[in-house]
Amino acid sequence: MSINVSGVTKRFGDFVALDDVSVDLPTGQLTALLGPSGGGKSTLLRIIAGLESADSGTVTIEGTEATHLPPQKRNVGFVFQHYAAFKHMSVAKNVAFGLEIRHRSKEEVKKRVGDLLDLVHLSQFADRLPSQLSGGQRQRMALARALAVEPSVLLLDEPFGALDAKVRKELRDWLRRLHDEVHVTSVFVTHDQEEALEVADEIVVINDGRIEQIGAPDDLYDSPASDFVMTFLGPTTRLGGVLVRPHDIDVLTHTVPGAVAGRIERQLRVGFEVRLTVATEDAQQVEVTVTRATQRQLDLHEGVEVWLTPTTGVPRAEIAAV
Amino acid sequence: MAVIASAASPAPPANPRGRRARGARSLGAGSTLSLGISVLWFSLLVLIPLVAVLVSAAGLGPAGFWKVLSSPQTAAAIRLTVEQSVLVTLLNVVMGTTLAWVLVRDRFFGKRALDVVIDVPFALPTIVAGLVLLSLYGPRSPLGINAVNTRYAVFLALAFVTLPFVVRTVQPVLETLERDVEEAAASLGAGRLTTFRRVILPSLVPAISAGAALSFARGISEYGSLVLLSGNLPGRTEVASVRVLTYIENGHKDQASAVAAVLLVVALLVIVVLDVVQRRLARRG
Amino acid sequence: MAEATSTTAYARDPKPVRWGLRILVVGYVFLLVAWPTYLVFENALKPGVGKMLSGLGDPEVSHALALTVTITIWAVVINLAFGLTVSLLLVRYDFPGKRVLSALLDVPLSVSPVVVGLALVLVYNGQDGWFGPWLEKAGYQVIFSTPGIVMATVFVALPLVIREIVPVLEEIGDDQEQAARSLGANGYQTFWRITLPGIKWAVVYGVVLALARSLGEFGAVKIVSGNIVGQSQTATLSVEETYQNFQQQTAYAESALLALAAMVCLVIVAVIRPKEHKK
């Protein structure tokens, strides 16, 4: 186990940011800490980095007890949401910083900085100041800077949070490919479930200072451990007494045992899918997503009477009686 | 933050070009008249008199000008003024930066009061500042320290009146410094001292130099706080502005102008230096 | 997360460093500013409030105080009118030489008061000044008289109002003014109903700063006033005079009064500043 967090609690005044959190993050993997903002995921990351101290509990990094080590002794790379560029230093100097602190030889620093700038495709910008780079370029520089010291773990705090949608998507793919190349144990914080599902080997869902579920993206999606995880990882709708995903509902034009009857109230075509709002007999509004083909085949349109039943073998959660 | 200083100090506007307005109109009849009157008043009050100083100094001719400045008493006064201003500026660079650091980074009971007290030297009339220092460092000192009529008195008075400059230029910059930059340095292995020296200090250098320039400019032009304190002993505790006054009192306005011209040029240089520093800062973004 | 980063473990210096720095700076400010300033008040009040007031009641002293008040009012009013006009011109209009004017307006803050005094004397003295003899012939004495003192005071405090108003004017923009005009307001109405309320705090702040500076001017006034007791002697000049004439008690009383006025200005500023920021 590369990082071991055990029984960590952290309070800010009356606010409990982390409540007895324990998690093991395996070596070489790319793990996402996923959850709504204010849920404690950034705090957990900062406690691993030593930028925050836990009120109780322990942190072990690569077998070394690190709970009370200052950040500079932990050998972790940290990438910040807002880049944290050293504004007065050139891109190359930024990347060289950690190596110079470690008093590496000039040639070694030069070679390693060159390699890293190649890796993040910033070689031609080596002598620029960070202010002359775009957001995406700055974040790549920050990544190279963090990787330069060959950290035992790479921690990324909402690394794409400050970037616009397009750059965000590019960098996300690029991070995945980079990780496949470099294989450094990485943990990144995000509140974007799509980002987590797409990039991570493993996802830790954190909410209200507690871990809701840990697992591979598919596991989490297919068998969420709680309403919260299910709701957070994708759209959901209520059908009868259960929570299901809108695309996991079979729409029938005839009744079957257990099906819920209703009438299509509204339909909205979005690209290849069609979103139906069905008013059921028990006065619920159920959102259903079907493909364009299904819609045509069944001739679904507003006013048509339909029967709904959850597709067999899909994740669903019983809704606790309120 | 109570900051008389930020306004009362001769700091240049953060961005001189910023005064160019978005969507500014061209002048109409009424505004042309206002502009005319304003410029006339400003010229009569400030520009023409300052030019008169330079003209009067130039009237001495290069040789006469040099003769005034190199006369032993005046040369000694200028030397003392520059020397003490440099020393005080160095002190301010260290203490001002430390003060700004504590005001921004620390929290403790009485910090707000400290913040206000720092502005006292700006708010006090200079003659009162002299009397203030006299009560602790004069003949009736409860500490038993009597600095009156010594060079220490000059140093003390200059340290008092220039106290807020570096603090008030560094403080806002330190406030906007992003904390994650220091955290990044730490995660890369830098200790606190290294982080301060290599990451924080370079970001503060423009602000510190601006504060230092203001402090130096104020130092060399100081008069009021020294009157009661330094004794104005020729060749020993007499500063440049006192020389100007003595020349005037003796009816040598042209010789007074020579020394005044030096003070004026230094003041203008400081403004230019500040402008350059600010612009460089703006470029770094 | 924002609430987390403000009080992080790493963000604060280690305790010994924090205490060391605290003691250093508090000690420095205490010895250089706080204690000496306190002593002035203590010295002024030592003989009792009655004695202090009677010192201030001395005809020459009270004349000096009254003169300072008059000069200050004149200087502040002139600088307010000039400052408002110039700020509006700089921000709302475009004209050739604007950048130069804007830069020149800051010059008075950097010039030594003694140089200011000399400069005014060179131009306005009645014997060999550039304009002085001519003005004197027309019946106006400037140097060694109240107009000269007012001019010197206006000079040293000139940029203070402008420096406060200009940034605020820039920030609020002219959208509201244009809206007012589109609703039929004329220039005068727009200024009183829209522009002025928007820059209200900046104006107050600038006035307070100009007030503090005007009350305390010494060097420039000393040169242009002639320092004639009971005539052109201001409060700050009187402090020097009384102290050197061994009326130290009076000097302390006057100083305490001036210091008190300065402190009041400081407090007003301390109260206004956050208000301005909140907007």
Can you walk through the features of this model?
Chain B: The chain crosses the membrane at residues 39-66, 86-104, 116-138, 150-170, 199-220, 256-277. The complex is a heterotrimer of chains A (322), B (285) and C (279). With 322 residues, chain A is of the alpha+beta class. Chain A has helices at 41-49, 91-101, 106-119, 135-148, 165-182, 193-199, 217-222, 227-233, 292-298; strands at residues 3-12, 15-25, 30-34, 56-61, 64-65, 76-79, 153-157, 185-190, 202-207, 210-215, 237-239, 242-244, 249-252, 260-270, 273-280, 285-291, 305-310, 317-318. In chain A, helix 2 crosses helix 3 and helix 2 (91-101) packs parallel to helix 4 (135-148). Chain A is elongated, with a radius of gyration of 24 Å. The mean pLDDT of chain A is 89. Helix content of chain B is 75%, strand content 1%. Chain B starts with a helix and ends with a helix. Chain B contains 13 helices and one strand. In chain B, helix 2 (29-58) packs across helix 13, helix 4 (72-105) runs parallel beside helix 8 (151-176) and helix 9 (179-187) crosses helix 10. Chain B has helices at 4-8, 29-58, 61-70, 72-105, 111-117, 120-123, 126-137, 151-176, 179-187, 192-221, 224-227, 240-249, 253-284, and one strand at residues 25-26. By secondary structure, chain B is mainly α. In chain C, 79% of the residues lie in helices and 1% in strands. Chain C has helices at residues 2-5, 15-45, 49-57, 59-92, 98-104, 107-110, 113-124, 132-137, 146-172, 175-182, 187-216, 219-225, 235-244, 248-278, and one strand at 93-94. In chain C, helix 7 packs across helix 9 (146-172) and helix 9 packs antiparallel against helix 12 (219-225). The longest helix of chain C is centred in the first third of the chain and has 34 residues, at 59-92. Chains B and C meet through helix 1, strand 1, helix 2, helix 4 and helix 5 of B and helix 2, helix 4, strand 1, helix 5 and helix 6 of C.
